[in-house]
Amino acid sequence: MQVQNKYHRFTKIGLVGSGLVLGLLLSLTYSAVAEKMAKPQLPLDDLRAFAEVFGKIKSDYVEPVEDKKLISEALAACLLA
Fold it and tell me: Which of 12, 22, 65, 80 is deepest in the core (most CB within 10 A)?
């Protein structure tokens, strides 16, 4: 009877210890993945400048230009630069 109690005690301790180790490893893995997946901040100053230039072109351009065309051509020009 005493041997069975020791066996159950060691089994419980082993399971709890295994759970702790597994939990620790999983939490470290997921935090490392989360850090890799963090997206960079938006360049707000650049976006404000783009919006300002967009508004200026829209209001002062000689011919009316559709928003979609103006934005797509501006982005294409940025990619070429």
Answer: 65
The better pLDDT of the pair 56, 14 is held by 56
Helix residue ranges, H only, 1-81? 2-37, 44-60, 67-80
8 A C-beta contact, residue 74 and residue 50 = yes
Which backbone phi and psi does 39 adopt, to 5 degrees? -85, 145
What would the pLDDT profile of 49-72 be if each residue is shown by its tens digit? Answer: 888 888 888 888 778 888 888 888
Distance CA 1, CA 75 (A): 79
* Contact residues for 74 (Cβ-Cβ < 8 A; gap 6+): 50, 54
Question: Which residues have a Cβ under 8 Å from the Cβ of 52 and sit 6 or more positions away?
Answer: none
Q: From residue 71, how far is each of 6, 29, 53, 66 by CA, in Å? A: 74, 41, 11, 9
